[in-house]
Amino acid sequence: MHSLRRSCLILIFGVGGCTEEDASGPGGFSPQPPLVTTAVATVHPLSNIVESVGTTRANESVTVTAKVTDSIRHVRFEDGDFVDQGDVLVELTNEEQTALLKEAEADLQDARTQYERLKDLLDQQSVPVSEVDEAGARLSGARARYQAIVARLDDRLIRAPFAGVLGFRQVSAGSLITPGTAITTLDDVSIIKLDFALPEVYLGSVHPGLELTAASAAFPERKFDAVVRTVGSRVNPVTRAVQVRAHIDNPEALLRPGMLMTVRLATTSRDAVMVPETALLQRGAETFVYLLDDGRARSTAIELGVRRGGRAEVRRGLAPGQVVIATGLVKVRDGGPVRTAENAETLPEPSDA
């Protein structure tokens, strides 16, 4: 016959009362099993994520200089302008070349007239063929001199070799410049090249066409998609790393050369058994989980893999479909009974984030 004890209840409004409880446990108490939640160990594809840091470079980059020594007559750009290929950036003085061009043009016209006249006389057999040949040679020489002066005049128009964004202007109108004098910089940022290094162990997993994501501290909320274009032909014998170059489309021109970016890429993919990280318990160097076995908790040692997105990979010690205790582990004892707050739930698909 069970012993009875009396317990007095003091209510919020000060009204007391006594009840009788069945005390079957030690000291007259009968505690309930701890309340837990469960999850099912499921298989999901899991990629190996490799992280690195890289530096951005322009798709094309050049320091604009002059080809000749002369003074600047007019500067046609401002700092940071976007220009198209062939746009004139700087005009050099060209009065002498313009005068020479007019002279060469007159010589060319005269040589052409003489050649045409002698050619007509040759048709009438009034002049020897040798005179016509000499006139043709003079015409060719006059044309070559004219084209040379046109080329020299064109050298006095400094143009953009490709479309891109200009840097700071380094010269002013009236400045005397020589070949090699820096006028400005020009960068094609429509595509950004991202160079980074990876340990040689990943050499077999990285190849052209592999997609990756990159992030910059300048845009913390944004991810930039990139594609591996080139894998270096050599491994650094000191760092044991290989250089990789990826391309990032940059239509908004947000990225600029010289930026530091964090790179994350997925290499090989495998099927992995996943459980919530909250189900893991550590005892020294050993990791274990509690399995739910007919209403009781049974501890089992496991071998952990990677952790990702609040979930952990179990490489050994757990089979897909087994139910583990996910929360409420504080009062759980090996072999002890437990109460489940809800039915076992399947884990959501893990992400690589």
Task: Explain the overall architecture.
This protein has two helices and 22 strands. It has 353 residues and is of the alpha+beta class. The strands form four sheets. A six-stranded antiparallel barrel has the order 4-11-14-13-12-15. Strands 3, 20, 21 and 22 form a four-stranded mixed sheet that branches. Strands 8-7-5-10 form a four-stranded antiparallel sheet. The protein is rod-shaped and about 130 Å long.
**Ranges with pLDDT <50 over ≥5 residues?**
1-25, 343-347
Q: What class, by secondary structure content?
A: alpha+beta
How many strands appear in the DSSP assignment? 22
Helix and strand run: EEEEEEEHHEEEEEEEEEEEEEEE
Largest sheet, in brief, is: 6 strands, antiparallel, barrel
The helix content, as a percent range, equals 10-25%
What's the overall geometry?
rod-shaped
Average the pLDDT over all residues and give the rounded result: 82
Radius of gyration: 41 Å
**N-to-C terminal Cα separation, in Å?**
61 Å
- Output the strand order for the largest sheet: 4-11-14-13-12-15
Strand content: over 45%
Number of helices: 2
